[in-house]
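Reopening this one. Same input as before:
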Amino acid sequence: MSNTVVHGLKAILSGGADFITFEENKPMTLLFIDWHDNLVGVREHYEKSLIPSYIRCPGHKICPLCKKNPGKYPAMRIKFRVYDPLENKIKFISLAKTHIKKLNDDFTLQGVDPTKVLVTIFRKGKGIAETSYKACRYIVDHTGAEPKLAVPSRELMKNLPDILPQITPHSPDEIAGFMQATITGNAGLGDKGNQNPQKHGLFQKLYTPRTCNG
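Same output, byte for byte:
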């Protein structure tokens, strides 16, 4: 399935997949939907001039971007779904392999299964080289000063958004079309919905989960 094809009225009106962009000093508490053996990695090009900017590589031998820049290899990105309890919504995350390893090390050290309990994710630094992540079990606030967060309902879990469009490589023809659209100035092709930073409501901006140390 191509990520440039959107099915259903709800998906069309919502403007694409809802990806989370972690921000420094703004930790987020989540429940991981995909983890362990369910994680999927895909090679992805980043081309700022193209729409979409993130192109899932179909393979070095057939990818037009690889042929154009043979010395520039696509990065491995791991994509998975999470539950955002503040918005009661399933969203997507895309992280590098090194970041996934760090989160997994934190979970293993603490004996936490992020698919069973809520966890808080912290980002530090800006830029690919400087960014790091830290994770810990969500600490419940019993004073009532913070919102009460809970795991998703069974009904919500029965209607998970499909992750297949986010991990299926673009075809060579699609990529060639993205490239041609840039050359001709036709920016109407593609879908940038999965690259927009996550915009939080006012309540979420005001709420900052406590650190791992409480």
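So the earlier flakiness isn't reproducible anymore. For the record, Strands lie at 28-32, 40-46, 54-56, 75-84, 89-96, 119-124, 132-137.
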